[in-house]
Amino acid sequence: MPAMTNSAQCQTNSDLAAAMGRVFGFHQFRPNQEEIVQAVLGGSDVFAVMPTGGGKSLCYQLPSHLLTGTCVVISPLISLMKDQVDAANENGLRAEYLNSSLQYNLQASVLDRLAAGELDLLYVAPERFTRSDFIAALKTVRLCMFAIDEAHCISEWGHDFRPDYMNLSQIVSEFPHLPVAAFTATATHRVQEDIIQRLGLRDPLTVRASFDRPNLFLQIEPKNDLHRQIPAFLRKHPGESGIIYRTTRSDVNAMAEFLADQGINARPYHAGMDAEVRKANQEAFNRDEVNVIVATIAFGMGIDKSNVRFVLHGDLPKNMEGYYQEIGRAGRDGEPAHCILYFGYGDTSTIRYFIGKMEDENERAAAECKLNDILSYAGATACRRQRILAYFGETYESDNCGTCDVCAGDVERVDATVESQMIMSAIVRTDQRFGASHIVDIVVGANTKKIRQLGHDQIKTYGVGKDKGKTKRHWRRILDNLVAQGCLLSVGGEYPTLQLSQKGHDVLFGRTTFEIFEKIEKKSKPPSSAETETKKRPRRSRLDIVEDYDYDLFEQLRAVRTSLARRQNVPPFVVFSDRTLHEMARDIPTSPTAMRQITGVGERKLAQYGEDFLAAIRKYSRK
Ligand code: ADP
Ligand code: ZN
User: Is pLDDT of 1 > 60?
Assistant: First the structure.
C-alpha cells in the first residue's frame, strides 16, 4: 500500500486557493474549509459539524483533486448521488457512483475505472461495506481518503440512526493508512462523541461551525388567511423556487390545487401520493420546471437543490429541530432566502392529536416539551435568530442580526396589557372551561347560539372589545401570543380549554405587562419586477451576498441555464448556482477572463458554458 507521502502535503495556502479557483471557481474559502482541507492533506482524520450550505463537499472534493488516488465518499441518499456526481463532473472532477440502482454492467465499468486509477471520487452507499468483495476491491487500488457524509446516521443517540452505517466502523481498521473525514449538519456533543468513537477516528481535527445561516431571512407572521397571505408573498417572488410546508396531506393537496388555480406553478408532495407522481413532482422542482412545492415534512431528504429561495410554513412545525432543518433547505448557495412561519396557536391541536397517539409515555412527554419550545419561539418578542441559536446552545453576539423581521424593523413591540386582561378576564369569568374561538366571541360581543345558550352575554366582559374597532382576528392574535408566551395554558385533548398560568395571573392583576409584535405597514412600495423585499434591508458585513444586480439580465441568464441544463440532462443548479448568475448580472463580464472572476466559474465550466453566457450578456448589453 502506498504510504502517506503526498506532494500535496506541502501545499501552501495560496496554492490551495489557486487550485480551488481553477476547479470550482471559488475565490475564498468558507469558514473552516481551508483548515479541514489542510488537515486531510496532512493525513489527519476530521470530524466536522457544518450547517447545510456550509460547503462540506469542497472539504473532500478539493483533496480528491490534489491527492493521488480515489476519495471514497459514503452517502446515505441514493437519490442524491447522481446529482452529486454530475456536479463534480461539471467541475472537471472524475466522479462515479455505485449503488443498487445502477445496472450490473454499469457497476462493472465503474469498478474498472476505479481499478484503472481514473477516479477522483467514488460515491457509494453505506451497505456496500457489508460486502467483502467490495472491500477487497478497494484494497487493490490506490485510495487517498474516505469521506463520510451524514455521519450522525451512525449514532443511535441521533435522530436518524441507520444500521447500515454500523458497517463503516471497519474502515479505520481495514484502511489504517488513510485519513477519514466525517461530516454532518447536526450533532449534539453526545452524538459527536459517539460518532468519533464508533468510527474510531484518530485524534481528529474537530470542527463545530456556527449553526447560523445569515442569509436566511427569518419572519413570523400571524396566520390569518393563508389563501390570501401565501399568494401575496408568491406574487412578490415571481419565478423563484420555494417550498411550502403543511402538516396534513389534505392541506397539501388543497393548497397545491388552490395555488395552481391562481396560475402559480405549484405541485404537491406527500407520502400518501402515488410514488411515481411524487417523484416526478420532486424531479420537476429540482429542474426548475415547477416553482413551488407544497409538501408535508416527507419532502426534503433527497433535496440538494441550491436555489431554493423561500421556505414557508403554513402550520406550526412540531419542534425546533424539524423547523430548522426545513428552513435549512433554503439558500444553500448563500444568496438571500426568505423563511416565514405563519403562526396561529390553533395548530397545536393537530400536533397534540399526533402526540396523543404516541404509545411511549416518555416519548409523549418529550414531544409535548418540544412543542412548548417552538410555541415559545413563535411568541417571543426578540430577535428570531438569537432565539433559534440559543435553542441550539449557541450564543448570538450581535444585538441586531439584520436578517429577521424584528431586527430589520418590520415589526414593533407594542403593549397589549389591557387587551390581554380583557381576554383573560373572559376566560376566568367562564371558569376556564372554553376554547379560543368562544372566548374571542365573548370579547367582541358576538351573537352566537352558544353564547346565548350559556348566558355568556350576561358576563361583564361580554363585548368589551366591541367598541375598540378591532377585528376578531386582532383578538385572536393576542390570544395566540398569550399562549405562546406561556400566560395561557392549553389543557385537554381534542377540544382544549384555556387556563391561566401564574404568569397569566400576573398580567391579569397588573403585576407585569404584556407585549406583542405588531407589523409596521410600509405603504411606499410595491417594488418593481422581481425586486424582493430582502433587497431593501440593511445589510451587515457578515453577509456575503450579491446585492445590486440587473434583474432582467438575471432572468435572461436563468433561461440560458435552463436550456443548457436540459441539453446536459442535469438540474439547472448543477450548471451554475443562483449566486453565480447574480454575480454575472452584477459584474456583466464580457470576456472569458472577466468571466473567470465570477464565483463558481472554474476552468472546466468556463470552457463548457462560458461562450453561451457571454453571448447572452453581449446581446443584452447591446439592447
Ligand atoms: P453542504 O453539503 O455543506 O450543505 P455544499 O457542499 O452543497 O454544502 O455547498 C453549498 C453551496 O455552497 C454550493 O452551491 C457550493 O457550490 C457553494 N460553495 C461551497 N464552498 C464555497 C466557497 N468557498 N465559495 C463559494 N461558494 C461555495
Ligand atoms: Zn434578528
Answer: no
Domain with 313 in it:
216-344+380-410
Q: Are residues 164 and 221 in the same domain?
A: no
The residues, any chain, with a CB within 8 Å of residue 16's CB and separated by 6 or more, are: 34, 37, 38, 62, 66
- What's the pLDDT score for residue 188? 80
- Compute, in angstroms, the gap from residue 218 CA to the centroid of ligand 1: 21
- Residue 434 maps to a domain: yes
Q: Which of 519, 554, 576 is the last residue of a domain?
A: 519
At 267-289, the pLDDT tens digits run 999 999 999 999 999 999 999 99
Give ligand 1 pocket residues (Cβ under 6 A): 26, 28-30, 33, 50, 52-58, 306, 332-334, 577, 599
pLDDT of residue 541: 54
Residues 438 and 463 both lie in one domain: yes
Distance CA 10, CA 366 (A): 50
Read off the pLDDT of residues 541-551 as tens digits, 9 standing for 90 and up: 567 788 889 99
Classify residue 359: in a domain, yes or no: no
CA of 303 relative to ligand 2 center, distance in Å: 27
Average pLDDT over residues 455-472: 87
Please tell me whether the overall predicted TM-score, pTM, comes out greater than 0.70 for this model: yes
Torsion of CA 571, 577, 583, 589, to 10 degrees: -50
pLDDT value of position 537: 43
**Residue-wise pLDDT tens digits, 175-205:** 999 999 999 988 788 889 999 999 999 999 9
Query: Is the pLDDT assigned to residue 434 strictly greater than 70?
Result: yes
pLDDT in tens, 39-89: 999 999 999 999 888 899 999 999 999 999 999 999 988 888 989 999 999
- The answer on 293 and 223 residing in a single domain is yes
Residues 579 and 598 in one domain: yes
Closest atom of ligand 1 relative to the 599 alpha carbon:
25
Asked whether residue 317 is domain-assigned, the answer is yes
What CATH number does residue 227 fall under? 3.40.50.300
Q: Are residues 404 and 451 in the same domain?
A: no
Which of 395, 410, 425 is at the close of a domain?
410
The count of domains in the chain is: 4
Residue 373 lies in a domain: no
Which ligand 1 atom is nearest residue 33's CA?
23
Residue-by-residue DSSP string for 93-139: --EEEE-TTS-HHHHHHHHHHHHTT--SEEEE-GGGGG-HHHHHHHH
Residues 423 and 452 placed together within one structural domain of the fold:
yes
For residues 423 and 501, membership in a common domain is answered with yes
Residue 452, pLDDT above cutoff 60: yes
CATH number of the structural domain spanning residue 438: 1.10.10.10
**Domain check: are 508 and 564 in the same one?**
no
- Smallest CA-to-CA distance from 217 within 83, 299, 353, 312 is with 312
C-alpha distances out from residue 264 to 256, 283, 292, 293, Å: 9, 18, 8, 11
Among 26, 241, 335, 545, name the best residue to mutate to test ligand 1's pocket (greatest count of ligand atoms within 8 A of Cβ). Answer: 26
Q: How far is the CA of 86 from the centre of ligand 1 (A)?
A: 15
Q: How far apart, in whole angstroms, are the C-alpha atoms of residue 521 and residue 103?
A: 58
